[in-house]
């Protein structure tokens, strides 16, 4: 196997520029005559905007223009759309009140966009923004989703009475109720899946330009999804034809979901660039990121798990209230529904499942997909309730899981919540994880901890994920407004190098390396001769971007399909050159060979001929350049077991993670080093959710209390343990690569593993984040109980 | 407007700046050295770490005029004649970066760590990185890279 082949840990080619400081992130790009935008944001959670007086601000030094919602309305700028229509349990579409890029009547969360100030420098724009006088009439806010449903709650939108966005269900309620009443044991739990702020390290940024000569717009954006951003901007908000707008997402410093969406800021800058006739730059500072990036999670759930006398799960019932924030973000509605409830079977054979989800508007920032999106929420509640059931029935938690795993010979396996898992082997991942953590030795380790006055706990998370959301026809029937294919163009250049244009977008995942490995192996040409181009609607045919761990499974498959087309076309040219029939020409390792002879041509020679077609088959077009669109047949289903072991000091409430094993099945692995890095990063975010992170709004005023790194606790190097990572492999059966996706696994698995370990140590339930204070209180209460 | 002058990556530079101009803005906007990043506005994330007179400093917490007459090294000045510094090479070898945004600050902090403590333990490395946030890597490979660089640099 060559060093750069599939399965080898090729060092990343993108690192050279990142390590030497010459990467090009949006904020690094400047235009000679650019001006700066700064947004006037609402300091109130809920208020009527009575008037906006810009007189003083307009006169401030350097100010070029100030715009408000009224200016955008005068230009008929539309509202930011939600791209997935969820139909509620009564057959009605969800409530989607308008979300204007600059508010028109009311502000609905702290940080909402009131006006934009454009000035020669950023500092001048900031200074002037402070001079914009807005007369607000304060209204009572509501930030708690359960509270928003109460009869006397303040109303956010006329279009959504009772603040209810939708009341949705999945599964057979009667069958579930029946199984619960006949169960030999029912475990119940109430839990909160805490709201998170994504915090990609690069703040969002936009550089919008308008070219009067052509009427074209160019938008540089920190986007995970440039084609979709263009589509939304053009079709839904600005009313422009797509060929007039080019969106470029260059190097992007992390996304984790928060950079999928079309936000107010880039919309306003694009629109205003034409108005002021100069390029407009906007870069969020971190405080703005906290206020106005789409947040994640935020569920309150009640769950019941029914078991028979043998510990087999007989039913699962889930009631969730999901906080949507003040407006529906682009994909907000599908997160607590089709990306959540459909995963509630987990790795288990639970025969009947019912989920009810109420989605609610509150005076908080909009919530949308964040690393894992819906799947972490599903895994968290399922793995927590399984742990409760184990504790209550006295069955070992590993054993209880094993008893209920879908057996390896049961695939493809149709769950009671709409999905069909193609393949998996959950028992071997669990076995391997148990061995790696030395589960047998745990009791002894617990004794040793107890001897030191410490509480030791172990926690399991046997998670499942659904990656590469698909197929388009199915998601369309469930309400998606877009197709979920991916495109790729594979272009041989005349002298044998290859340019691959992919609609996937890399913002840390290392596609330039992985995709080149893939292409090199498929075409049998040197890795160094391949470039991967992504992130520019001006050069890539079409695309759907990167989220939901879809890049390799969907984007990589599109590349393989385009390579297949290239190889097929090359076969005709090779047959002509070698005077053989097409059927007799085989392709292997970059060579076309005539079967049974020693005649051969390299694909590079064929490429040259395709561009210099002096001796060429009559019915074949010149050029070797093919495009493929790939629409997957199903989701892929990565799965695995993570086990966390913790030691808690009851005197301080500090939880130390003493060991962590992660055994994941990602299907075929292209670059093990990159995959391992993805696991590390995902686990870190999951650990952050479980131990440290939590977005808090003041319940009375709706102010964001965790609005900076001083208050929002991000995981730092000393919060994380060394992870022991391993993989098992069942190849995905329905994509040409056998790959499943790995980016979200850690964030899905980790919170449950860690919270199960903590609650195992404490012997009682607590909610995330398990801060020292919360853990200390629980440990003290337990100590008091023991003393009684 | 006051003028500042300093040596940045071995080159003497000077300019007139508003008194409130931060060192990071001066580097990024005046000198177009965009390798030094801005990740926060509370001096918590470490994306902006550079060396001032050989010591690591958060360039967002220092005014450009405070750096008058100093020698500043940014990530752009670390590689010599196109050869990566051993710390940069170790980050690459051990996959200590993903999106690359925190990376310049991480590398500059790590280089300073080894100047202070040429053979740090894992715990000492993790403690030192308290001022740098990486959202992508989970730090494991950053720690590995720094350990490897320490070995390489003969600590
Ligand atoms: S930008 Fe300097 S510490 Fe965050
Ligand atoms: S590599 Fe992305 S923040 Fe560190």
UniProtKB/TrEMBL annotation, chain A:
Enzyme kind, highest EC tier = oxidoreductase
What GO molecular function annotations does the UniProt record carry, in alphabetical order?
anaerobic carbon-monoxide dehydrogenase activity; iron ion binding
Which keywords annotate this record? Molybdenum, Oxidoreductase
Pfam families per the UniProt record, alphabetical: Ald_Xan_dh_C, MoCoBD_1, MoCoBD_2
Give the EC number(s) under which this enzyme is classified: 1.2.7.4
The record's SUPFAM superfamilies line, in alphabetical order, gives: CO dehydrogenase molybdoprotein N-domain-like, Molybdenum cofactor-binding domain
Q: Which SMART domains match?
A: Ald_Xan_dh_C (SM01008)
Asked whether the keyword Transmembrane is assigned, the reply is no
Domain Aldehyde oxidase/xanthine dehydrogenase a/b hammerhead, which positions?
A: 20-140
**Name of the featured protein:** Carbon-monoxide dehydrogenase large subunit
TrEMBL record, chain B:
Query: PROSITE patterns from the xrefs?
Result: 2FE2S_FER_2 (PS51085)
Q: Which keywords accompany this UniProt record?
A: 2Fe-2S, Iron, Iron-sulfur, Metal-binding, Oxidoreductase
CDD domains reported in the protein's UniProt record: fer2
Q: Which residues does the UniProt record annotate as the domain 2Fe-2S ferredoxin-type?
A: 2-78
Gene Ontology terms, MF aspect: 2 iron, 2 sulfur cluster binding; anaerobic carbon-monoxide dehydrogenase activity; metal ion binding
In short, the EC number is 1.2.7.4
Asked if the keyword rRNA-binding belongs to this entry, the reply reads: no
InterPro entries, per this entry? Answer: 2Fe-2S-bd, 2Fe-2S-bd_dom_sf, 2Fe-2S_ferredoxin-like_sf, 2Fe-2S_ferredoxin-type, Beta-grasp_dom_sf, Diverse_Oxidoreductases
Provide the top EC class: oxidoreductase
Keyword flag Acetylation: no
Protein's UniProt name:
Carbon-monoxide dehydrogenase small subunit
Q: Which organism is it from?
A: Limibacillus halophilus
